[in-house]
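User: Second chain of the day. Same drill as before.
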Amino acid sequence: MEVEIVASLTGLAGLAIGLATGLAVRVSERAQQAAVPAAPVGGLPPGVASVLSVLRSSAVVVDAEDRVLRASSAARAFGIVSGDRLVVDEVLAMARLVRRDGEIRETEIQVGPQSVRSRADGRWFAVRVAPLGSHGLVLVLAEDLTDMHRTEAIRRDFVANVSHELKTPVGALSLLAETVEVAADDPEAVRRFAGRMQYESVRLTNLVQDLMTLSRVQGDEPLPALRPVMLDDVTAEALERCQTKASGRDIELTSGGESGLQVRGDQELLVTALRNLVDNAVAYSPENTRVVVATRRRDDGHVEVNVTDQGIGIPDGEVERIFERFYRVDPARSRQTGGTGLGLAIVKHVTSKHGGDVTVWSKEGHGSTFTLRLPLLDTPSRTAGAHLARLATENADAKANAKTNANADAGAKRDAGAEETGADAGKVADAGKNTKNTAREATP
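Assistant: Same format as last time:
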């Protein structure tokens, strides 16, 4: 009997322990489920939005159904996101792969036109895609590399153009030297080829000089030793340097506008910039025409120097590119007219270095007008200086008048003194006469 009671108690104890164990397991599972945050519904996990707001890159967060939960304004402006969808197929495919295997992926993409002619209009991005949390969210970061790609393209084009431009005169000089050696017994041929060699050497010298000037003005360093520069002197020197070329084509060079205007800058660089504009106008103008350089003051404290020609003009689609290095609107004509292709680029950088800018108006068949806009020299200082000079002149005049008046007063006093002295002398003389007469009358 006792054995049965013990067995029953043992069974009840085992049952109680089993029930307690099962209850503990259930409580533990519920606690674990409560510790795991619920998947966000229509939003981001706490704190993610704050982190994304301080990122410099364009940021996009995509949910498990490829819907965009958050996108920066730059991502929408660059055409990566439209509405609540990623519109760049390559980025969308990367997001799906990252969601599937959880691996971070990186690539470079181009958004926008991809044709050869309009490739420069597209934008390049370095895209990095990574998982965000454990609920299928994906983070897309896109960094704009357009300026870097554009700079690299300009560098490649510059190196290629410099190599080509240097190779042309160097190769010509080599061939001409060989020809002169062969024609050593023909003086006329030697003179002709020597003249051609001189032309090519001048062309090479000009190219090297333009490269040196461009390297000097295109950096971020300020120009040293700026001083007041008279624009009249700049205009006169620039026209003088271009006069021989203009006379050879019967093109008249004239100047006009307001005189006496000053700017602060480097006179040699300003002359170079203006000479390049005048030389360009002469090169692209027909014979028996006129190139005019005019200077005028602007109301906002700036001065404008206009160079106007009656040349062939520039097509509308090419105006924005004419200030690029080695860019030529008509390469065939440029070869005939000469030049290095760096003149307008130098003009742009020189005016920028002087705190100004350059603009152009042009119409095909009606000529062009290039305008240099520069800040005037400190006009209040000039006005104050003129005022001080005027005061000094007035003071000098006042002192001179005072001295003159003092001299006049002194002279009048001297004259009055002389008159008084003469009168006294007369009185003395009269007194002497009276004394003599008195003495005579008193003598018996």
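The radius of gyration is 46 Å.

User: Great, on to the next one.
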